[in-house]
Amino acid sequence: MIHTPPLISGLFNTGAHVLVVCTGNICRSPAAEILLREHNVFGTNAVIESAGTGAVVGAPIDPPMCEILDQVGDWDTKTHRARHITTEMIAQADVIITMSTKQRSQVLAKDPQAIDKVFTLVELSHLVRIFGASKSIGELHALRSQLPRLLTLDI
After folding, report:
1. What is the pLDDT of residue 6?
2. What is the predicted pLDDT for the residue at 62?
3. How far lies 147's CA from each of 46, 53, 55, 72, 154, in Å?
4. Tens digit of pLDDT for each residue in 34-59?
5. How far apart are the first and last CA of the chain?
6. Half-sphere exposure of 63 (CA within 13 A, CB side)
7. What stretches in the chain show pLDDT beneath 50?
């Protein structure tokens, strides 16, 4: 039986537009996209997409990642095609989840005004764990500066 994570749908009143970003858009971000969608982490009306900062445009999910995803669930891993992140994607997203701080910086280099909605996966998961899923993205952004202090208390 697959454990379903707690919904983060409290972050949004209606369906969220979530963009997941990694480098090539062939392993981490498409896997996260599928897992977030299939587990309804942002609610059933969420639009969840992925892109890469240095995408292997048009490439499918890397075969070893497909094998892992196929072992975990019966999900469509064959139709994904890698895309390069654009400023339009950044503007349309309600929240952007990157796999690393480098990718977060690359997203912000494309659109510095997106600072309040770009989080690393680790950062967002800590914020939701500590402050709860009922906070808005804006509230989580405001609480972001408290993370280093709170995480040292967690050890």
Report:
1. 44
2. 96
3. 27, 26, 30, 31, 10
4. 999 998 888 888 899 999 999 999 99
5. 31
6. 0
7. 1-7, 155
3-class DSSP state for residue 22? strand
Cα separation of 33 and 142, whole Å? 25
pLDDT of residue 138: 84
Q: How many angstroms separate the CA atoms of 112 and 124, rounded? A: 19
Q: Would strands 47-52 and 95-98 be described as parallel, antiparallel, or unpaired?
A: unpaired
* Cβ atoms 21, 56 nearer than 8 A: no
Report the alpha-carbon distance of residue 134 to residue 46 in Å, rounded. 16
Given the structure tokens 């895309």, which residue do they identify? 83
The half-sphere exposure of 88 on its side-chain side, counting CA atoms within 13 A, is 2
Q: Which residues contact 14 (CB under 8 A, 6 or more apart)?
A: 45
